[in-house]
Each structure stands twice: as structure tokens, then as C-alpha cells.
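User: Structure please.
Assistant: Input sequence and predicted structure:
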Amino acid sequence: MTIPREPTTGVGVLDRSVRILDAVEGGARSFTEIVAATGFTRSTTHRLVKALEAHGFLTFQGGRGCRLGHRLLRLAAAARGELPLRDLAHSALERLARTTGESAQLFVRDDQQRVCIDAVESNSELRTIVPIGSELPLTAGSAAKVFLAFGPSTASDALIARARRLTDATPVGDDLDRQVAAARRRGYATSAGERQPGVGSVSAPVFGPDDELVAVVSVSGPESRLGRSDARRYAPSVTAAAHEIERALIGERA
């Protein structure tokens, strides 16, 4: 496999590093494949790969070789925040936080995880904070259950089968499967202490103009205010925010 040569900037180390990232993105996984794809010497490739790994731009997964690292995912999440979805959804998140008094978040799926691309914090002294760019699991929390409920069934089944407890309250196996099915029926999901002890949340799906799941909107707060039974009263506000974002997406497409 070879990759097309990118324009050079005159900054050799940067140009070569980008070429290695392009090679991995293009399918190169082993050290030998990266050498072949870039045309660099083995010593140069080794030095740059190790530097990129140290900075989180590449990561190694044992026998599966090299892949793009988590730092690139965080950068992608930050860049994604500049896309229309965030702009179109932000006012709805602000209203949701104001209506409920809790923190509001917008998540998108990124392979095997979910990423927060926008958030509005509660004004309460005791509140939850989910920084923009946070990478959270797809198997714990109300937003995760919404992604599992309305995402591709084959991928969701595989994730449910591999789910592991993060806290004593994290549902796994048949319990998680039942809760995902309930979220699918209700159109929203709740959680209490499932991802992090003491934190509760309510989430609803955001569908695009072609009825595909594009995001999940959530409110989260202390379990004392958002316990499993209390959380249900927030569901109408969360689903209303999701529908508001959907209308904005349809208007943007039109």
C-alpha cells in the first residue's frame, strides 16, 4: 500500500509525522506496513511512531498493531463542535438547562464510545460537569442506552454482550438488554449511578432528516435530584429539546 504525497511545508518532521498518520488512517497497522506505505527508513519510522505514540496521536493494541490515538479523537470532537449540529443545538441545550435547573449535554457516537460535543452547565452549586470533548462509554449511563436502543442492532448487541460493570449500579447482560428495550419503547432512558456513583441522568435521541440517529441530548445532575424515580419528570423536557434540535436540522437541510 502506498499513500499519495501531501504538499510539503518545509517543516520536515511535521510533514513526515502527518504522512505516518495518513498511512495508519489508510489501513497500515504493523510497523512494516507503515514503513512500506511511507517509504521512510525503519529508523526514521520508529522514531516518529514512538513520538506520535507518546503524544497520544497513535496507540498500539498488541497483535492488532497500530491505530489512531485518543488525542486525535479529542481533537476531532473539538472540531466537530464547530459543525452545524452544535450551532443548531446550542439554544435548545441552554433552554433545557434553564428549564430543568440541571446540566445539559449533547453527545455523538464515535466508534465504540460517545463524545460530548456541547454542554451547558447548571447554575446550581452542586452540579455535574461534562467537559466538551469527553469520551464516555457506550455501555453505561442513560445516553449510552439511547445509543444502544436506536443505533445499528448488530453493533448494539455486540456492545451489550461485552458490557462490564463500572459501578455496582451498572446494568449488564440481560438487565442492560431489558433497559435498552425499555428506552426504545419509551423514547428516552434514565440512569442513576451507573457510570459514576451519585450521578443521575435522562437522555433522548435526536434523529436526522432521514430518521437516522445523529445525537443524544441529556440532562445530568446529583442522584439526590435525578434518582431513577425522580428522573422521569425530566423526560418531557429532554424529549422536547431533542425534537427542537430535530426541527432545526430539518430547517437547515431545507
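The domain at 12-68 is CATH 1.10.10.10 (Arc Repressor Mutant, subunit A).
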